[in-house]
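# step 3/5: fold
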Amino acid sequence: MKRVNEWICNHIETIIVWFLLLGPIFDCATALSLHLLHIQFTGIIVIKILFLGLLLYDLFFISKCRYKKPIIVVTCAIITYMVIFVVQTILLKGLDVFFYECQSMVRSFFFPLTLLALYNLHLEKRLQVHSKYLCAILLFYLGLILLPLLTHTGFDSYAYSKTGTIGWFYSTNEIGGILSILFPFLFYYFLKQKKWILFVGMVILMVVYFAIGTKVPILSVLITIVIFGISYLIQMIQSHKWKQLSYLGILLVVGLTSLILMVPKTSFYKNIKIHLEFLEIHSVSDLFTIQKIDHFVFSERVRFFSQSFDNYKKAPWSQKLFGIGYIENYGTDDVNVKLIEMDYYDIMLRHGIIGGVIYFIPFLWILILIVKRIKYDFKLDYIVSILLILLLALFSGHIITAPSVSILAAYILVGYLEGGNLNENRICNGQL
């Protein structure tokens, strides 16, 4: 067993990197199983659970980091809560929905558990986060959308009404989240290359992003470009680089012109028109009602929140403390399994006051450390990505409650805390 532990200790970083790089293949296999074979429970779910189990095994039984005690305490608190949630589910809802509730719970708590395990590896100097891996993952996802787009073999982004393709994937929201939080790293890489590579790369990126037909990736691209643009503009003005500033202006004009010409031909634009026609919006003033804003901007998430919150208020105190779960009003004629798709609210209602507080402790912990580090280590690509993680988790969901996305979010958050070449101080058998 000692040899096995030593092997895991020495290769845990490689295992994590390969798990991330194979993420597009895992998601592709899941989509094929669901679309073609109609199999809900796939081997990919088992692989992800085993991966999480390996991280926790390393944390509890292999790691020698002397700073890991608070991490262990919070991890044990999370596991204890998960056990209580399972028991409450069995007592109040029975065994019929046991598997669905447990699977949903594990999907949600994949993020804080992974975040704690990765942070411990960071403290022990056994994990070095590379943005090049994040760029490679994004390119892999883009390829598995672009190839089916060119060959007309991709799956539709929407089941009805709207247009768009999600490539060989299943969940538009999850893939949209991945494309959004990884974009700042690839964009930053393009900026460091020759200008023609930036232009060609951005054109290919925009073709894929607009082809999906959903708003989130496009808005994330705009937020990223605006923040990077303002940052570079300030730097150029402060250093009096007027020549580079003129190049940036020309590039911006060309880019905006190309975008204006391209947008009307995309699925994104067609879906906006379809949505506006459905809501009978003929002018900007027609949009300004709470219901229409909710429908057009938030895809009725405010209405879903209102329904779930009403059910939460009606629930007994045990469910207010430990959560109403993922099936609301079970055993009645008013059963509801629709998520709010706003991660923070979903966690607080599905897992209650105690579960929600325990869930967000690791997240807030790492965010506080990041804020402290920004003062002397400003990484713009990471900052923009983390900003998108925070915003999208609030407004569109599927960021910290979907394992395919949340593992990347955890990797990015821990990545900001690094500095220097950590491989030089790798420790497996001693204490840090």
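# step 4/5: annotate
The beta strands are 155-156, 165-167.
# step 5/5: archive (pending)
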